[in-house]
Every structure is written in C-alpha cells, then in structure tokens.
C-alpha cells in the first residue's frame, strides 16, 4: 500500500490525459482505420477486428448504463403534463418537449434561490480552501519552525476522522456559536479541508530548493516567495483543489441537511430532498429539479476534465 | 489513508537541524554538488549553518497557518474531542447534560435500532466492496486501450461521480419506481413488477446498486494509473507460455495492481460503512418499513439532531462508528501485509 502511493500518483495525472488531448482533434477517417489495425493487446499481439468490435459493444453497453439514467431523467423533465410519464412501453423521447416543468418547480419551491445558495456556498468553499490550504501548505512545506511537526499532525488527525462521526458535535458547536441554520455554518467545517492542506504541502515540496534560495539571496520576503514562486508552481494542484472544493460543496448533502432547518436557507440538494419528500408523485418536477442541480456540474466537468481525473488520483492516494 | 501517514513520516526534515554541525563542507562553493538532488538538502543545511540567512520572521509560519489551524482545531479536532466526552453524558440539544458513565453504551447494547444499523452498515460493506474492487478494474481494462473515441467513453463513465448523491439517488428512485423504467422493462420481458423501493431487503439492495454505480468511474480512474504500471514484458512472457487472456488477467494483471486493489478496498469499505444518503433517499428518513433499513449514520442523524436530539447517545454511537472505521482500515492493511508474506 505504501508503495502504491508514489507509483500511482505520477501515472494517474498523465494516464487519462494521454489518450484524450493530443490525438483527438486531427483524426480523419483513414488514419483512424489504420490506428484500429495497429491496436495491440497487453502481450503485444495485434488486436483482432473481432475483439475491437466486442470492445466497442461493451463500451456502448456501459455507456448506456452510466449515462442512460441521466438521459431518462432529462427526458422526463421535458415531458408535458398531458403526456403519460408512466406509459407502457416507456417513451424515451418526449412527445411535445417543454420547459414548463422547470418553471413550475420554481413556483413550488424557490429552486433558483436554492441554486444561488448552493453557488454561494460552493464559491466560498473554493476561495477559503484555495487561500487557507495553500497558505498552510506553504508553511508546512517551505518554512522551518519549531512545532511544524505538530501542526502537520493536527491536519493529519483531522483528515483521518470521518466527518460523520463528529457531525453531531459540529452541530452543537454551531449552535453554541449561534451559527446553526446559516450558510456560514454550512461552509465553515470544510472551508480549509485538511486533505487540501496536505495535498498542497506535497505540491510545494516539489519546488526545487535552488529557486527559493535564489529569491532569498535577492531579498525576497516570505510573502513574496509565497506569491511569486510558490503559488505559480502549484497552479495545477490549486486547480484540482478548487474544482473539488466546488463540487464537494455543491453536491454535499448530510451536513447541510442537519445544520439547515429553515427552508429559506436551503441549498439545492436539501431543496431537492424536500421536493422528493413532499411532491414525490410528480416525477416531472423532481426530474426538472435534479437537472437544475446536475447540469452546471456536468458543464464544469466537460470543460475541466483533466483536473477532475487528476483529482481522483491525488485525492485517492492521499485520502 | 495510511499512505498519508507514511508520507508525513519521512518529511521530518528537522534533520536539517542536525545538519550544520555534522557538515564540515560549509562554504558556499559547494553549489555544483548541490545540483544533485541528494546533496541539495545537506548543502542547504550547510549554507544555513554557515551564512545564517534568515528566511523568515519567527511568527510568519504561524500567520500562514492561522486560518487553516483555526478552522481545523475549532471545527474538526474540538468536535472530535467533544464527541468523545459527550459519549459519556446524557447531553441533549438544549441541555449540556451530566456524566453518566457507560450508560449510553449499555443502552446501545439493548437498542434494536443500533443493531439494525450496525448490521446494515456491515452488510453494505460486505456487498459493495467486492463490487467496487472488481468491476472498476474490468472497466479500466476496457478503457485503458487507446481505441478511437475512448476519451469520450472515459468521461461518460465518470459522469455519475460528478453528480450529487442526491441527484443520483432521485434518478434511481424514479428508475426503480413500481411504474418506472426498470420495471417497465421487466414487465415487457414478462416478469412481475419488482418492489425495489418497498421491500426492506430490496431497498437496501437498490441503494447498494446506486453506490456501486456512482463509484464505478471514480475507482476506474484509480485503476487506470495502476494498469499503466504493469510491465508489458510480463504479459508477453505469459503469452509465450501459452496463457490466454483470462489466465493473464489472473496471473499478471491482478498481481500487478494488487496494491491498488487494497487501496480501493480500503477507500470503499470506509465509504460504504459510512453510507447515508443513498439509503436515506431510497428508504425515506425513517429507514424504510419498521426502520429495518436504517444505517449507523442514519441512526446518528436521527438520534442527535432536532430540538429534542439526544446528543449524548448519538455521540456514543458516533464513537463506536469511529472505532469500527479505524479497525476496518487496519484490518484491510493487516490482511494485505499478511498476504504478502
């Protein structure tokens, strides 16, 4: 296991990207065909046409399994009230596609306010994690001081404690601070995640000593070094931290569920749960609500794929 | 998780403190040597010892650490400590409570819901972990070849990871509805409607299915990196020896990625034991018929929140959950170590 960590980390960043970027854009039909013929099995033998075909069939099946449910939900959300969503056999495409359900779900619950709340929480989580975790990570990686080991230990312990096992005490803490039922309380516990501090510490460690020594000789102070040398050198990891902070906060369910009691402060996931509990018989509305919650993230993912994939590697190895 | 422990072990570069006296090569002209990576640390230590360059003020590191440490201590470490001592009190949401010794733990032993929660959480681990260890590996094998268009499939398989567990849960609630898509297909095939969301065991099974489905893409990415590190020569050699694809998978691929399998097993067993959202959404807040589908975290949530929440008792359950999580982790790694020998 210990050996997994270092070996998995570097490979992971490149593996998914490797097949993604360079080859996709320019691939006219004839070249593609040649490439299929050149595909090789693990043992170096040429992959037969048949096995390539089998692979594509399997890929298509898994695609249907992974994406199909989302498409079904999208289709349901676009079906008009006159259309039977329970039709037998099921109709995959809406007869008269309409956005009515999106408007109606906004009339039943303030879904756009909830979306705004989610956005606020997510952005606050991004900023606080990027700033807080990079500062702490920089100090742990690049500054020598007494007590550094203990400071690192605090983050390590915090990371090992499952959030679910301390959430009741966190809730009590928020009550004591009179913050419960506020968006601030939703953000606070994870706003400088220990995992991110440790990720950034590792990233800062990879900066060559010589660069910083040169800056010290030139008289650069610690803040200057942090801003001019440190941060630019860990941009990639910062992007990963930012994206996962956004996704984590936008998707989070359990903590906001227990800390938010007033429905005017709900985030989108809590609002959806409420919708599900109260209007569970209206599938079209729930479908519209879930689409509102998931589409922004799918767009984000489509634009910033490689960081999502990198994040899995770094998060998994360290977390 | 352990990897971090070991990753933070070696840093202890306070070794630099021991450097200056033992490094007589003080002068700065050692810069050529310092370009080699092993030498750079000692050379820096030497330089610091010799030239005494002050790199920062004494309080600077603490300024850098202030936001992170403050948040972590106040909202992670303190609540952990509070959980431990509240577990021995009869605290409620609005009253601090007083020390009651082991009462909470005694009550737990007699609490049917606790045993149901414990059983369901363990069932979850037992059913979900084998699937999340094996299926994503097969999926990774399928997508790690650079077939034309493979990037598209990789991204598509990752979509469920990006979506919130609430979205995913509600999508499947609709899919598995008595009149939903899955049952429509089942009926078309000539079978009876399957009550996925009303039978207590089927609810749990459905939730497990959702958990596995949502995790596929995540663990697939982890495996892809590991697959790239399996030496091709081994495959070639096995092939020369007459091993077919299945044989090669079992005796070359699996041993090649076994460290990663342990990692995935550890990650997913801890995650599965802490399951909440999927079951909460599919079984309802009360945990399905007669609360039979309650998981441990659902029980904590139900017991400890609200104005009459029993904070003390919920903390005691939390503490038990924490201990079991740690034991699970240790068990996975201990089993791995024993296997290696």
From TrEMBL, chain A:
It is found in: Cell membrane. One of its GO terms (cellular component) is plasma membrane. PROSITE patterns: ABC_TM1. Residues 115-303 form the ABC transmembrane type-1 domain. GO terms for biological process: transmembrane transport. CDD domains: TM_PBP2. Residues 1-44 are annotated as: Disordered. Residues 1-17 have a biased composition (Low complexity). The chain crosses the membrane at residues 53-72, 121-141, 150-171, 183-200, 233-250, 285-304. It comes from the Bacteria. InterPro entries: MetI-like, MetI-like_sf. Gene3D superfamilies: MetI-like. It is a multi-pass membrane protein. Keywords: Cell membrane, Membrane, Transmembrane, Transmembrane helix, Transport. Belongs to the binding-protein-dependent transport system permease family. This is ABC transporter permease. It comes from Streptomyces cacaoi. The lineage of its organism: Bacteria, Bacillati, Actinomycetota, Actinomycetes, Kitasatosporales.
